[in-house]
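A sample copied in:

***
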Amino acid sequence: MKFKELNNASWRQILLYLSFIIAAVSLTYILSRLVDNNIAFQSESEFEALATESEKALINRMASYNHALLGGMAFFQGSSDFTREQWRQYVTIIDVEKNFPGIHGLGWIKKVATEELDEFLNKIRKEIPNFSISPATENIPLYISTFIEPEYQNKQAIGLNIAFEKSRREAADLAKKTNQPAISKKITLIQDEEKTPGFLLLHPIYKSPSKSLNASAAKEDFLGWIYAPLIARHFLNHLTKSQGDTLNIRVYEGDHIDKKNLIYSSYDEKHSIIKPTFVVKKQINVMQQDWIIVWDSTLVYEQQQNNNSAIFIILFGSIFTIILGVFLFAKIIDNTKSTESDSVHNKFFIPCLFFIIVMSGAYYLYQVAEERELDFVRQHIEDESKKVEQLVTIQTKEKLQALKRLAQRWEVAKRTPYNQWQADVKNYIDQLNGIMNIQWVDSNYHIQWIEPINENQHLVGKKIIDNTLTKRFLKNAVERNGITLGPPNSKPSESGSKNHIDSRTFSAYAPLTLNDKFDGFFVGVFDIKKFLSAVFSQEINNQYATYFKYNGKVFFINNLSGETLAPKFMVEKTLQIYDEQWNVKIVPTQKYVKDQQTSLPIIILIAGFMVALLTSLTVRYIIIAKNKSDHLLNREQALQKLNSINSGILQSTTSLIIAIDA
């Protein structure tokens, strides 16, 4: 087409076509931003889940420390002749360093009245001849660290009057006032050679077990505190597997972030030059102290979240825009109708072939993108299932350790006195979710003690062996000499329903020895629904259906709220809880699966269709243009030939006229 012809084209049509191109570019940008935002939202949600997991791990770790303190309470309540050697045996048996990472020791702080100081010193020096109180102070209370184990790493703390320092004294007074465990503000432990931030965790003790459960316990009944020195760099380290890998954690005391309030950081901020993309901040109350926790994403996490979806959209959008421009340009220069000589075969077959080829490629990319999305969802659900597995395993074993600690105290005390045992058991039942009762079963398999006693009085004296299978099971438990889990079983349903899934229990058995001889069991009976429900957050309940099975039979289902499930994403795990295996089936909801997916595959398919359509139309117009060009060329050649003939005729005519004239 000549430039003059192009110049005469409708400017309105040109502007319209130009607006199409601008719209295509804008749409590409908007879609890429939407996908980017969607990916960022999903990454942020996943990071928040990691932060929540870390927070729960911290809470659970602190609770386990408190359980260690609770375990020592029975030694002091109702005991007037408790010795340092008994305490050493208890701490050695529970193996504080191994079972409670972060605890630097377990100790006893005695509140001593000034007028009783000489009597106290005379008594304690019978066990520790060189015992002395430090630092020398006046006009402050006497809160004396009487003994602490392991002694070799806490010698400096023996004889320390913790009331000499404000933070220590305030934490002790707070625990006594509220009758709840309390942690001190940030301090430097005298036994920490590196002088890094540390704390004291204190649990108040009263003479009377009943008053130990009452915040208004009489002043004269207060004995002192069981306490644990904590070093922040130890007890805040490795809360979860993701710490230091996909997230970093910073902990500050108080209600605002300030470097002077920093308790712990999992990385060196001074050498960190990359600003984290994802940050979660939360203020929590830990043992009556306010802490601010900040979780920062790492480069590893951010690289894991990188997604090429936006790049795909920009690529397809660019191709679409280029082909659209070529097509519109072809439309502008095609201002004449096709001729009859245009080949029907070329006009339709070749464009259709191009459409099929391009659409096939787009469909392949669609399948690749969709499979990639599904792999991402499967991996995400697999990761979540591992977290559930870890939560259930850790919390189950942690709660069952309560029985083990009861058994260890029984052996140290050569049978714990009943009042002391009862107080100890009450504390555990109050602190641990899901425990229905705890029993002492003697060596002849008869229930001798049980707590709570009021609703279980009828069980006292009952023999727990009711068949050959139970007898064999209990004998195996004695031979293993460790915590043994019984199978889930049904308890009587209050409603009379035949469905016992919500009314199941399981029992755990801790063998006892006295002078190296079998002395029966401590048996903990657990309500499965309460026991396992405490593990699952509302978020997990909304996202997954979780089925627990034993020997192929379901014994627990978490609360699901009637959501439709996606069975093809089901994950099955086998949990090893001591000597028993529980099978766990985790099935995500359809809504959760849908929320994890992006619109990239369908965008690729739609964009592929548009590209294929425009490609085929463009090819068609190119063929038409070529046909027209060939037609014009043929016409031009015919005209040239005709002109040549005419020219020859004219020349011949001239010669003829001359000849005639001659």
About this structure: Confidence is low (pLDDT under 50) at residues 1-9, 211-217, 336-343, 492-500. The CA atoms of residues 54 and 388 lie 13 Å apart.
